[in-house]
């Protein structure tokens, strides 16, 4: 009923709510307002955690690629052996 009486206010509230629900807008507002209120120690700890996560994922990728290369080499020798048996 109040939205019918004040359509401009209702539209403004709807647009503001829509903008806040968008992921990019929320991230922008957080970084430029609340994110600046964090202490340097909190920011440093967050960056350190991100570096640890990245190092862990790089190590996992290296191990996985090593396993794949070993499997490819084994498959290649197996294929050569099968080829010689067929000959």
Automatic annotation (TrEMBL):
Coiled coil: 37-71
This protein's UniProt keywords: Coiled coil
Top-level lineage group: Eukaryota
Coiled coil is among the record's keywords: yes
InterPro entries: RGS1-HXK1_interactor
PANTHER family membership: RGS1-HXK1-INTERACTING PROTEIN 1
Protein name, per record: Uncharacterized protein
Lineage: Eukaryota, Viridiplantae, Streptophyta, Embryophyta, Tracheophyta
């Amino acid at each position: 009923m109040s939205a019918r009486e004040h359509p401009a206010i209702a539209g403004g509230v709807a647009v503001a709510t829509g903008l806040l629900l968008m992921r990019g807008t929320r991230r922008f507002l957080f970084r430029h307002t609340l994110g600046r209120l964090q202490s340097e120690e909190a920011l440093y700890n967050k960056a350190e955690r991100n570096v640890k996560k990245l190092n862990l994922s790089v190590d996992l990728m290296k191990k996985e690629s090593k396993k794949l290369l070993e499997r490819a080499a084994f498959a290649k020798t197996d294929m050569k052996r099968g080829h010689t048996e067929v000959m």
